[in-house]
Structure formats: structure tokens, C-alpha cells
Fold this protein.
Amino acid sequence: MTRTVRELLQQGRPTWSFEFFPPRTPEAERQLWTALRELERLQPSFVSVTYGAGGTTREGTVSVTERIATDTTMTPLAHLTAVDHSVAELRQVVSRLAAAGVRNLLALRGDPPGSDPQAEWIAHPQGFRYASELVELIRSMGDFSVGVAAFPERHPRSRDFETDADMFVAKCRAGADFAITQMFFRAEDYLRLRDRVSARGCDVPIIAGVMPVTNVTSINRIVQLSGQAFPPELAERFAALDGDRPEDKAAVRALGVEIATELCARLLADGVPGIHFITMNRSTATREIYANLASLPVVR
């Protein structure tokens, strides 16, 4: 039977996981499966597949997750959002995933369609307004391990950090077993989030989401995806290396790997329950970071 993320976290060792997104072209599909096979050799705890805003990648998410479940040795985690979906449609997706043996889901309210994370969020008339409702639905449908999102720099729609922590704890009390954070670049942001949650009597494990920066252009994309500001001190370090020469690009990439390695090492030293790498469907940088961390006593 497929392992659950809940069971993996109970083993007391940090989990190692990787996040992918559904491909839109045959070339992108080849790239995805090359990365998956290369990272499979590292025996990750689990791998996740994202779900596009408004369900735009629903079929791709489900089919890739199904294939991971049936054709690889890896444990899949499917993302699922409430955006533009009725409760009946959400039930259908969960049932299809369950039929393929998928037992792990990440329940997200989701961003509105489009590129603006601050755009108006409108609930489906027969759907949900909150991720906590989606957690409750999934838990009512079977023995699933359910995760939710956490935001070290708070959700862009939250008024303040305290309100954000309250919303997170509400999702946990609805039945979430674990959380995975939005990408972040300062360990202090994660540690403050953990302290706020702990102060509310919530001990749900919070896995750290880490995305290595491999080119300066991707920084703008990171800001767009996350709705968060990129730390200015890091932006300056990358800008100082940026250029058109191959050696400039190599230096930027090396710095991204170095910064991500240092962040992961600090988090592991502070007892993070797991590291979740946002791969952008590429494996090289992630494998380098993992190799850098492999000598640490806490790894494996």
C-alpha cells in the first residue's frame, strides 16, 4: 500500500520531497520525466504535482500523479484547489486519485486565475470559500493524508501575521496532518511562523518549501508566483553577478545553489521536519543541493 506523508513524518527523520508541475507540451513532458527519473534515484520521501489556478491543469495534475503512483517507486502527493470547482467536481477528482492509489493530497484554496495573486477571489457558487472546508471534504472521503499551505511571510491576503497564523491553525484543526510552506529565503521567517503556530497549541509538522534561484530572470517569476518580495540583500548579490557571458550565468547559478544549501542546513539544524524542493521540473540544481547536504548527520 502507498505510504502516507503522515506516516513518513512520524518516523522522526527529515523528509525529502520534490515539487513538479504538469507539462503543457511534449517537450516539457520529456523534461519532466527526465527530472523525475533522475530524482527517483535519491529515493525521495514523496513528490508532489501542482494544480493550476482555476483547475487549468486538472487533467495534467491527475494523469501525472496517477502515472507516478503506478509507474515509479515514488510516493505521490496531488495538489488540489477549490478555485472554480463545485463540491461535486472536487469529489470527482478525489475519487479518481483514490482509484489510482493516491492517498496524499495538498488541500489549497488556490490563487485566482491569471498572474495577479491579489486579484479578486470569487468562490464557485456550489464550491468552497476556505481551504479548511476542502480539508474536511477530503477527510470525509477516505483514509487520506491531507496537507495544507503555510506562509512564512504571511499570505498576501492576510491582514497581519497573527491573523495568518489563526487561519493556518483553523486548517489544521479541520483535519490537516502536515503543511508545506510557500517558498521563502530567510530561515528566520520560517522559525517565526513555527513559533506563532506553536504558541497556539498546534503541533502539525510544517515542511519547508525551498526553491533554488538559478538565474536572475527567475527572481521576477518567484515574486509573481509567491506574491512575496524577494529579499533585497539577496537580490543585490545576484545582480552583482548578472551578465551575458556564460561564466556570469554559471556564477549566478552557483550562488543560487550555495544560498539554498545554507538555508537548508540552517533549517535542518533547527529541527525542520522536512525539506520540499520546488524544482520547476528540472533536477540538476536540486541534486547538487542534496549532495551538499548529504554529509550532515541529520540527513537520512
Notes: The chain has a mean pLDDT of 91. The radius of gyration is 18 Å. The first strand starts at residue 15 and ends at 20. DSSP finds eleven helices and eight strands in the chain.
